[in-house]
Automatic annotation (TrEMBL):
SUPFAM superfamilies in the record: MFS general substrate transporter (SSF103473)
Database matches in Pfam families: MFS_1
Residue intervals of the Major facilitator superfamily (MFS) profile domain: 11-392
Organism annotation: Qipengyuania citrea
Protein's name in the database: MFS transporter
Length: 392
């Protein structure tokens, strides 16, 4: 059988943009979480259920649906799940009650599989020596989606109300769903494993036994992603509180600091190709710990906060890219299922971080949030160091 066609630069960029749009949906809530809570008349602790259930549903959806990528065309699955996202975010746009809004957000999480199918799809269509670079390019697309979502949501909500954000998001998702059949070429080679769906799910566990390092990578990214969610939800509540007195647009503008990651992440990926994924990840983890520890002493006013946020936005995505590199270079027939383990653990961490970030802020304020983040980052750096020794 002939080898699959390599992706062109234009195709890589198009897939990165698609990844941006499908990823953005989960992050519109970040700068506007206080405004949405006020609209529905719920507490800061209860509003944390919106991002928390979204992340947990995403983990469940990934476990149940992503392994199909080793059996069914990644292209077909990506298009199908993008359509599910479109319907879910439209439900959030029309929801008049908190319960329906939570249901729409939870459904959205369940169908948000496309960003995690795209790296597996691309890994089958790029030269091995470019795997880190292309993985980082798709990760940069994800970062762009997060950036645009958080900056745009803050600004749009300030001038047009929070509901307009979800109407815009639904329109963008519809456009991407219609464009994906052209952006992704057909004919990719799928594994010829015709085992039953249940056996396909169960087959994930023996893979963990054969590739135990995936547990290290998944746990590290769970902490990395959980603290990312917690810092931005806590920050949104802190900055819009009477103590600080800023609007949602300020939170959005501050989120624009993530723009540094769009340019730095591909370079970090190339550097990780040279020095090794595990060594690079440990270095990124300790740099991130330094940034997290600065949040409390510099958190008394807006401008000093830029310093730790710049540090964490610079190196945080590098932790994810290097974690993926530890298993995306393995047998193509198992990459999607290993990605399943990694991303399920990541979003369990995100779900815990979502609720913990709002609940801890509700109980202990910004100081409590900073303490929680410091503990998470210290655990992350310790695991990254241990994983480096494990991988030798």
């Amino acid at each position: 059988m002939s080898q699959p066609t390599r992706l062109t630069g234009a195709q890589e960029t198009s897939l990165a943009i698609a990844a941006a749009v499908v990823t953005a949906n989960a992050y519109y809530i970040h700068p506007i979480i206080a405004e949405v809570a006020d609209y529905f008349g719920v507490s800061h602790s209860r509003i944390g259920l919106v991002p928390a259930l979204n992340q947990i549903a995403l983990a469940v959806g990934i476990f149940l649906l992503l392994p199909l990528g080793d059996r069914i065309s990644n292209r077909r699955l990506t298009i199908t799940f993008a359509a599910g996202q479109t319907a879910s975010i439209a439900l959030m746009a029309i929801a008049q009650g908190f319960t329906l809004f939570v249901i729409g957000s939870t459904m959205l999480g369940f169908f948000t599989i496309a960003p995690y199918l795209l790296p597996a799809y691309a890994s089958k269509r790029v030269a091995p020596e470019r795997l880190g670079q292309v993985t980082a390019k798709l990760a940069a697309g994800v970062i762009l989606g997060i950036l645009v979502a958080r900056v745009g949501a803050g600004v749009v909500a300030e001038h047009f109300g929070w509901r307009m954000i979800y109407w815009i998001a639904a329109a963008l998702m519809l456009a991407v769903t219609l464009a994906l059949p052209r952006l992704m070429e057909g004919g990719e080679r799928s594994a010829r494993d015709r085992q039953s769906y249940l056996n396909l799910l169960v087959s994930v566990f023996p893979l963990i036994g054969r590739h135990r390092e995936i547990l290290f990578s998944g746990a590290i990214q769970a902490l990395n992603f959980g603290q990312f969610i917690a810092v931005w939800l806590g920050l949104a509540l802190y900055l819009t509180s009477p103590e600080m007195g800023y609007g949602t647009d300020t939170v959005g503008y501050l989120a624009g600091l993530a723009a540094i990651s769009i340019f730095s992440t591909p370079r970090l990926g190339r550097w990780a190709d040279e020095v090794g994924a595990r060594k690079a990840r440990a270095i990124f983890a300790f740099c991130q710990l330094a940034g997290i520890l600065l949040l409390w002493p510099l958190g008394g006013s807006l401008w000093p906060l830029i310093i730790p946020l710049m540090i964490t936005n610079f190196v945080g995505p590098g932790v994810d890219v290097t974690g993926r590199m530890t298993f995306l270079a393995l047998d193509p027939g198992v990459r999607t299922r290993l990605t399943t383990v990694y991303v399920v653990m990541m979003f369990i961490g995100g779900g815990i971080g979502s609720y913990a970030g709002t609940a801890v802020y509700d109980a202990f304020g910004w100081a409590g949030t900073c303490g929680l983040l410091a503990l998470c980052s210290l655990a992350l750096a310790s695991l990254a160091t241990a994983a480096r020794r494990f991988g030798r």
